[in-house]
């Protein structure tokens, strides 16, 4: 029997009339196919009109709809050769988290999903989609397995949140969620998460700290449920609709807020001091947000593999070392990045930016546009090696006479340079038009490194 929500009552009445007319048109009854067709068209039109203007609280109800497809339905429909994997290898298997290997469009993938169940028996078995610590530890185990075998990870999230029971807390629920998030962030293969119903609190985030997060049109993603928010803020359960509106939990709300899931340019431990202000207004948050401060990433790693590869190669050359194509793969170098910045109307401006890798020091200034992901930096590049030492053969011989012209301030080579382009396609080049400019240096740090 079809389940109707409160705001679907007019549609339910039409569906009821259609069903009565269909029974009347059975053998021996009156043929009223035209009337059934007309009412069906009216019901379909009213359904579309209703769902086109749902409130956040109504979308929350739709996200929880008992007839909504569950994670198992998506896995059975999209994934072929699915082989389920169970257990956390420490305590038990948690039926609230499904996981296993399969193929998506012919490609091997690791699949995870929070399963609510479709009837009373299955909902009890899957604990209504609320995972215990063993569920998140199972997820972590499978994500790490996917990383070892270079398999992309797909996750389907539909949960009100992690199970809040005493037994779950006793077995380390918070730690299990944190470790699962950490594993997702450290994964070196693509991870795509889809919010297919409810995306509630840390229980959802544990499987959704991904390279790409997708949300269905009538799904929700929030740090807390509207009911819990209402009870905390208003001390009453009667303000759930107000809470749903304030939480900005729908897919449409998140798009308006400018929430994006693109990976950062660089990963690593960040030390940051900043002042934040968010003036009121109709503009998007990205254009209203204002920041000013400093940051330091001492051991950074670029997420763009092409860019990181160029950094690795350049570090070797700036040290006067060379590798051949037949040599073993070079170890990835870690970058030291620090600077002073301001953010205003979506433009990130750096009054100084100091970048350092083995053999290379760079000081620059410039801007980075959050909207277009474009940047424009200019500065000075100082290398340990001389120009002639950075190459081999006849090129090295030709460059030796000009080495003295670029040996300045104790560096083997000092040249003006620029970095322009986008995150996915950065461009590096010499910039003799800025050769007389001296970008600000970090206090003590840049000077001590010379």
Quick tags:
nine-stranded antiparallel sheet; 450 residues; alpha+beta; seven-stranded mixed sheet; 17 helices; 2-enoyl-CoA Hydratase, Chain A, domain 1; 16 strands; 3 domains
Number of domains: 3
Number of helices: 17
Which CATH architecture of the largest domain would you pick? Alpha-Beta Complex
SS elements, strand count: 16
Globular, elongated, flat, extended or rod-shaped: what is the shape?
A: elongated
End-to-end separation in angstroms reads: 76 Å
Structural class: alpha+beta
DSSP helix fraction:
25-40%
Written description of the protein model:
The protein is of the alpha+beta class. It folds into 3 domains: 6-53; 71-257, 2-enoyl-CoA Hydratase, Chain A, domain 1 (Alpha-Beta Complex), CATH 3.90.226; 266-449, no CATH class. 35% of the residues lie in helices and 28% in strands. It is built from 17 helices and 16 strands. It has helices spanning 9-24, 33-51, 56-63, 71-78, 120-125, 133-148, 166-170, 173-186, 201-208, 226-233, 240-247, 251-257, 285-288, 305-318, 393-399, 403-406, 445-449; strands at 79-84, 97-104, 107-114, 153-159, 191-200, 212-215, 220-222, 266-267, 271-277, 290-302, 335-344, 347-357, 360-369, 374-383, 413-422, 426-430. The strands form 2 sheets. Strands 8, 9, 10, 11, 12, 13, 14, 15 and 16 form a 9-stranded antiparallel beta sheet that branches. Strands 1, 2, 3, 4, 5, 6 and 7 form a 7-stranded mixed beta sheet that branches. Helix 6 runs parallel beside helix 8 (173-186), helix 8 packs parallel to helix 9 and helix 10 (226-233) crosses helix 11 (240-247). The longest helix is centred in the N-terminal third of the chain and has 19 residues, at 33-51. It is elongated and about 100 Å long.
């Amino acid at each position: 029997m079809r389940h109707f929500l409160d705001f679907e009552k007019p549609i339910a009445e039409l569906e009821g009339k259609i069903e009565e007319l269909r029974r009347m048109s059975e053998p021996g009854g009156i043929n009223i196919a035209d009337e059934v067709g007309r009412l069906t068209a009216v019901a379909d039109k009213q359904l579309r009109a209703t769902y086109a203007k749902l409130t956040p609280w109504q979308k929350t109800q739709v996200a929880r709809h008992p007839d909504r497809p569950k994670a198992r339905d998506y896995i059975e429909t999209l994934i072929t050769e699915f082989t389920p994997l169970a257990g956390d290898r420490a305590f038990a298997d948690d039926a609230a988290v499904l996981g296993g290997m399969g193929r998506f469009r012919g490609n091997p993938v690791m699949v995870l999903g929070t399963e609510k169940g479709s009837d009373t028996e299955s909902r009890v078995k899957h604990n209504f989609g609320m995972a215990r610590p063993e569920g998140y530890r199972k997820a972590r185990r499978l994500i790490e397995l996917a990383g070892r075998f270079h398999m992309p990870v797909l996750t389907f999230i539909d949960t009100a949140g992690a199970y809040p029971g005493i037994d779950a807390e006793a077995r380390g629920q918070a730690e299990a969620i944190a470790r699962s998030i950490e594993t997702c962030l450290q994964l070196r293969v693509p991870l795509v998460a889809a919010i297919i119903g409810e995306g509630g609190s840390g229980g959802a985030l544990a499987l959704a700290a991904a390279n790409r997060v997708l949300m269905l049109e009538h799904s929700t993603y929030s740090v807390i449920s509207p009911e819990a928010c209402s009870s905390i803020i208003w001390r009453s359960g009667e303000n759930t609709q107000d809470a749903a509106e304030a939480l900005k939990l729908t897919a449409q709300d998140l798009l308006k807020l400018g929430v994006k899931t693109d990976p950062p340019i660089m990963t690593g431990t960040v030390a940051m001091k900043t002042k934040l202000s968010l003036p009121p207004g109709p503009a998007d948050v990205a254009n209203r947000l204002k920041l000013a401060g400093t940051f330091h990433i001492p051991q950074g790693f670029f997420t763009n593999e092409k860019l990181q590869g160029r950094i690795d190669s350049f570090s070797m050359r700036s040290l006067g070392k060379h590798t051949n194509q037949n040599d073993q793969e070079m170890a990835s170098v870690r970058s030291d990045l620090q600077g002073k910045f301001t953010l205003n109307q979506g433009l990130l401006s750096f009054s100084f930016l100091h970048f350092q890798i083995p053999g290379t020091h760079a000081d620059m200034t410039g801007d980075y546009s959050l909207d277009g992901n474009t940047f424009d930096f200019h500065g000075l590049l100082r290398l340990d090696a001389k120009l002639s030492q950075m190459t081999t053969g006849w090129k090295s011989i030709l460059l030796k006479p000009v080495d003295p012209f670029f040996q300045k301030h104790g560096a083997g080579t000092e040249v003006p340079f620029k970095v322009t382009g986008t995150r996915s396609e950065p461009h590096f080049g010499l910039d003799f038009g800025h050769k007389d400019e001296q970008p600000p240096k970090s206090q003590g740090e840049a000077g001590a490194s010379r």
